[in-house]
Design a protein that fits this description.
Length: 939
């Protein structure tokens, strides 16, 4: 019998009276009890001046903290329960919310306390120079300017209970002279506090609904429902430099979607001045104000003439100024269809009419219903002449704005002519260039299978065409389309893609320039190529193919429109050993110089905006992705965080790459995870897990955690299991046989190494892996036990179904996508039958555990039911776990914990001869659901 990995005999030996030898503390095995305390780092940032790193260190369940680490002094400080963190532009403050204690919140919930009796968030203002924190209670939200420091605005609840020190608020003082009956609420607004962080002075405004800073913090704009005759309902602008408060619109109503131009000279917002809350069709109006205007002016309303008849200004689209302030973009929409409110519920007919010419399936319409109600179509106000041009229409709904939106051209895209092709997920689309001055448009591509983008200077449009497997560029000046790649010297499409469809591109890095010397950079499998669009010639700028090193550009500056400028950085992936590194170019179009390499996965480089320092993470199977800092030379890399020091107390494991050949001779690789104190002379139980290809994840770290859908590797290795994760290659029409060809041949190759008990092998997979698990147990008795999560068991019924989370037809899944059958049900009928586990159920001799939830939106759970019912009728040992209301994978932590316990109990029973738990031997009657979990182990 194979038992859990125990304390080795070596660690049990006594020291033979050598009192100078310290007692070695035996390592522990991982249990389900460790999950909650294992920590994560969900947020990380570096101050603009590069002096401080701020990150959150949170347990998987419980109260976390924000950690402040000084790169200069190495001083470390922290604040408990901090979240929603932002740094001021001047690098002087970290601003964050402070959450109530989790245990306190739970205890009050058990006491059935009402919402207004529950503890509220506080605001933390952390001074990065003095390492001191100021806390402000009852904070709802906060904002800081994007490009200047020194200012903070936040809203508070229960403001009367709070002393706002150093306030200069005549409006508040006038309010205190009389009893105010108006209650602060979401409808009436809450108190807004504007804080000068340098002087610590506050300016307070009452009953604020919405507010916004300019990027450069010259103004704070807000809307309010008003206080009394001294503070009217409307929209106000507060000048942060002069302290002047300007009322830019005096009116009653609702004001939302406030926005400002980057220089703070113009303000726009949406207003609904109808105070009758029962009015069904609202009539929003677009207002604009600029410095010097006495009041904001309506520039678009229900009387518009620029859009189709009966179209309204959208109340859902956030207006947006172009960066140069010459244009204002906003949304419009057709007048909504409203219900007849005179009808009684029993008089309303609820029927769906599924029409064969529907552009969107009824199921798609249901998924997008709320989004469709708020859908808007882009329009632009040219501020130099106040002319409005409608850009988007029902037949051309999508208009793409670039980051700055300064140019007089935009891309408009329509898939409407092709949207009835529900069996093809790579929808075709028509592409247009639209002139913002007069609305004229020019079609530049038809039935394109690709995603076009406008170059930074609006000189070119580029796209990858799936059907042509090539990159293209359209010259706006010359009105010509250029084919940029031909795949003769190297392939710019994914060479190992094995779907029965056109292969995707490796991607593009961006533009070196697109004006004087236009250079567009695209990738092949290993390298980057700069294509000179004037001469249409590609130039190699990396050089990784010979040594199988992949180069990918890292964007360290979100504001930079072009690549390969100052602080350019390349990420390297060494295909042979899966190590990673960084490289920098000596000049923009020369091969980068390798400056850093590790047998780790390197991720998330974030550079300080105004200093040559950055932070990044390093991880491998043994090491959590902790934070590291460095300058751009990577000569002095320092570890910043140590999230889980307790890991060294536990048995963990190691991972290596293994090679073998499939039955058809295809060379393959996989990952083999071994227990920490692995002994090749022993016989271990083994788990086989898989999903497509995983070998490139050699250096991925997995924390012990309750499982969403797949097994937790360190839990199994800590408990004495070997884990095999094979890569799979597919042949069109034979997904099941392809899985057998790769997985079973690989498993046999591991057995041949001599350290695996061939009678103690389990297999587990979820979704696509769940299908293959279900298929394999109909083809082999190699496995002692199997677990299939959300498996497709009957491709004939699944083919005609719906992916409920998106509302899409499942047909494309089988014809061209992951299932890889390569044809329709009627063209490839035998393939659908041969690859369906359901039709081969009588051959199953392996116990099977399934997890398939009744709200699964990817694989309909009746697929699991079909297989369960077949196995049950044939009296095969089968269990189906259905976590009510859960989707394709588990999201609720309580359910993830429960599933982890059941899955490990299941495999421990079959692979280690552990006693079976009651849920396996007795089941769980519905009368006991939610009362008894039957996790106890029988005698």
């Amino acid at each position: 019998m194979i038992t859990s990995l125990s304390i080795s005999a070596q660690t049990k030996k006594k020291s033979k009276k050598n009192f100078e030898t310290p007692l070695q503390i035996p390592k522990k095995v991982l249990t389900h009890d460790v999950y909650d305390s294992w920590k994560e780092i969900p947020d990380r940032m570096i101050s603009n001046d590069g002096t401080n790193v701020i990150y959150t260190l949170n347990p998987q369940e419980g109260d976390g903290r924000v950690v402040v680490h000084s790169l200069k002094s190495a001083k470390i400080d922290s604040v408990q329960r901090a979240a929603d963190i932002r740094l001021t532009d001047d690098s002087e403050y970290a601003i964050f919310k402070i959450k109530p204690q989790m245990n306190l919140v739970k205890s009050l919930k058990r006491l059935k306390k009402k919402k207004d009796e529950m503890p509220k968030d506080s605001l933390g203002i952390y001074n990065l120079k003095t390492y001191s924190v100021t806390k402000i209670p009852h904070v709802l939200n906060y904002k800081i300017p994007e490009k200047i420091g020194g200012w903070l605005a936040y809203q508070i609840e229960d403001a009367k209970k709070i002393d706002i020190s150093k306030k200069k608020d005549t409006l508040v003082k006038s309010e205190t002279k009389k009893k105010v009956s108006k209650k602060e609420s979401e409808e009436n607004g809450y108190r807004l506090v504007l804080k000068n962080l340098k002087t610590n002075e506050n300016q307070v405004f009452s009953y604020v609904i919405d507010y916004d800073f300019t990027k450069t913090a010259k103004k704070l704009v807000f809307s309010t429902t008003g206080n009394d005759s001294t503070f009217l309902s409307g929209v106000y602008a507060y000048n942060l430099q002069s302290g002047n408060l300007t009322n830019i619109l005096k009116a009653k109503g609702k004001f939302k979607k406030i926005t400002q131009s980057e220089d703070g000279q113009q303000i726009a917002f949406i207003a609904d001045l109808d105070t009758n809350t029962k009015t069904q069709i609202r009539l929003p109006k677009l207002y604009i104000w600029k410095v010097g205007d006495e009041q904001a002016k309506v520039v678009a309303d229900e009387n518009q003439t620029f859009a189709p008849q009966n179209w309204l200004v959208s109340e859902h689209y956030q207006p947006r100024f172009s960066k140069d302030g010459t244009k204002l973009f906003f949304g419009t929409n057709p007048k909504p269809i409203v219900a007849d409110t005179t009808l009684l519920p029993e008089e309303i007919v609820n029927v769906e009419v599924w029409h064969w010419q529907d552009k969107k399936l009824q199921t798609q319409q249901k998924v997008s219903l709320e989004e469709d109600k708020k859908r808007s179509y882009l329009a632009v106000l040219n501020l130099n002449n106040l002319k409005i041009v409608q850009l988007g229409f029902l037949e051309i709904p999508t208009v793409n704005l670039d980051k700055d939106a300064n140019h007089n051209l935009v891309l408009a895209i329509s898939d409407i002519p092709y949207s009835n092709q529900h069996w093809d997920w790579s929808n075709k689309k028509d592409v247009y260039l639209v002139n913002l001055q007069d609305g004229s448009r020019k079609q530049i591509a038809m039935a394109l299978q690709g995603n076009p983008t406008l170059s930074p200077n609006a000189q070119y449009v580029t796209w990858w065409s799936l059907s042509d497997t090539a990159w293209f560029a359209y010259s706006i000046k010359d009105e010509k389309t250029l084919k940029l790649t031909d795949n003769k010297k190297v392939k710019f499409y994914e060479e190992d893609d094995d779907h029965p469809d056109f292969p995707p591109a490796y991607g593009a890095a961006g533009w070196v320039d697109d004006l004087k010397d236009p250079m567009f950079v695209v990738y092949d499998n290993y390298d980057a190529w700069a294509i000179d669009l004037k001469n249409n010639t590609p130039m190699l700028i990396t050089g990784g193919r010979e040594n199988r090193v992949k180069y990918r550009y890292v964007n360290l500056d979100a504001d930079e429109r072009f690549i390969l400028g100052k602080n350019a950085l390349w990420k390297l992936f060494y295909e042979k050993d899966k190590s990673e590194g960084f490289a920098i170019p000596t000049s923009p179009l020369t091969k980068p110089k390798d400056i850093y390499k590790e047998s780790f996965s390197l991720s998330n480089p974030i550079k300080a905006k105004s200093a040559d320092y950055l932070i990044f993470t390093k991880q491998n199977f043994q090491n959590f992705p902790d934070l590291y800092s460095s300058d751009l030379s990577f000569q002095n890399v320092k570890k910043i965080s140590d999230a889980n020091p307790q890991q060294k107390e536990y048995l963990w494991g190691k991972v290596e790459i293994v090679d073998w050949k499939a039955y058809d001779g295809t060379p393959l690789q996989g990952l083999l995870y071994k227990p920490e104190n692995f002994d090749s002379t022993k016989k271990y139980p083994m788990m086989v897990y898989f999903y497509e290809k995983n070998t490139d994840n050699l250096h991925t770290h997995f924390s012990p955690s309750p499982i969403r859908s797949y097994i937790n590797y360190p839990y199994f290795t800590s408990n004495g299991y070997v884990i095999f994760v094979p890569d799979i290659v597919y042949k069109a029409g034979d997904p099941g046989k392809s899985a057998y060809n790769c997985i079973i041949s690989g498993t046999e190759s591991i057995i041949a190494k001599g350290f695996v008990n061939k009678d103690r092998i389990g297999i587990s997979g979820h979704s696509w892996g769940g299908y293959q698990t279900a298929y394999l147990v109909t083809q082999t008795n190699m496995f002692r036990a199997a677990e299939a999560g959300a498996p497709v068991s009957n491709m004939t019924s699944a083919y005609g179904g719906i992916r409920w989370e998106s509302g899409l037809s499942r047909q494309a899944q089988y014809e061209k996508s992951q299932t890889r059958i390569g044809g329709t049900l009627w063209d490839k009928f035998d393939k659908y039958i041969d690859n369906s586990p359901l039709f081969q159920t009588p051959k199953v001799q392996t116990p099977l555990l399934m997890m398939h939830n009744d709200d699964d939106g990817a694989v309909p759970w009746y697929q699991g039911i079909e297989f369960y019912m077949a196995l049950k009728r044939l009296n095969k040992p089968v269990w189906l776990l259905n976590y009510n209301g859960e989707k394709h994978g588990l999201t609720l932590r309580k359910n993830r914990k429960d599933f982890a316990k059941r899955l490990y109990q299941y495999f421990d029973h079959y692979l280690k001869d552990a006693p079976a738990p009651a849920w396996m031997t007795e089941g769980l009657p519905l009368l006991e659901k939610g009362i008894n979990q039957k996790l106890e182990v029988g005698k």
